[in-house]
Design goal:
2 copies of one chain form a homodimer. Chain A contains 4 helices and 8 strands, in the order ααββββαββαββ. By secondary structure, chain A is an alpha+beta fold.
Chain lengths: 163, 163
């Protein structure tokens, strides 16, 4: 697996270099980042564990508002919620492995249990996760709020604030 | 994108539940985790940034030794190396979005520049990243050493030590 993909990555980087590695503007990064989010089935949520190690968990890409807000559904009893209660700093990462590009958003997470948020992410059959239904105390909604982002493709990358 | 995938996840979880959500043994988790690593083109490296936020970056899945050691190539000048010099605690995550399973490994990273490690991960054309070749000071090898792992599929998950 390894070296074959490295060859592809090298070829992609070489093609970009031949074009002079054109620098990305903030507007291009945001536009391409949004396109990546819309094309992604999942994203990766990074949190701080209590023992100081970073943790990563794949989350379903259910709902977002631009790059500013992203919502996830999860079990209130999950390790992620326990960690976020103690430290709500997080990152959300989207990756396109075919085109060697990715978007990292840095921000904080609010843990919501209001009925509007619960209903917004509910789907038929979700009782398999939350047996008591949409009002199950073990059902929480995470709302991520981005402060800044980093978008890269091949050898180009740009960091930008998110207002 | 969102709700359709949620429906697939719910169906997969329901199918697993019908089979009684059979618990994973440590041996099964390690065996399935290794299979996931071998099938993965990329993985996600989690690090601690200086300002206390978790960071995530996709890395090419180049080489591993069981679940214990994973090697990555990167630029010495990269943000990842700067972060790992100050705090070498990290995690490595592999995800299979089609089958709703993932493997998180928790451990630490050593930054290597010995010639054997450099040659081990080198590939023809890698000068696009490291213009001075295999001895480029801007070429580093990251060696991740796992302490413990967490493997999940659908609603089942298990945490285990890695000797």
């Amino acid at each position: 697996m390894g070296k074959e993909l490295l060859k592809q990555a090298i070829q992609s980087a070489q093609a970009s270099k031949k074009q002079g590695n054109p620098a990305l503007s903030k507007e291009e990064a945001i536009s391409q980042g949004l396109e990546l989010i819309n094309a992604s089935k999942i994203c990766l949520l990074g949190t701080n564990s209590e023992d100081g190690f970073p943790n990563i968990k794949a989350m379903l890409n259910l709902k977002h508002d631009g790059l500013k807000h992203i919502w996830f559904s999860t079990n209130t009893s999950s390790k992620r919620v326990q960690q976020l209660r103690k430290d709500n700093r997080a990152c959300v990462y989207y990756v396109d492995e075919k085109n060697f590009r990715g978007l990292m958003l840095i921000g904080t997470v609010d843990i919501l249990q209001d009925i509007e948020s619960r209903k917004m992410l509910w789907s038929q059959g979700a009782e398999v996760y939350y047996p008591l239904g949409v009002e199950d105390p073990d059902y929480s909604v995470l709302r991520f709020t981005a402060q800044r982002g980093n978008y890269y493709q091949n050898l180009n990358n740009i960091t930008f604030d998110i207002a």
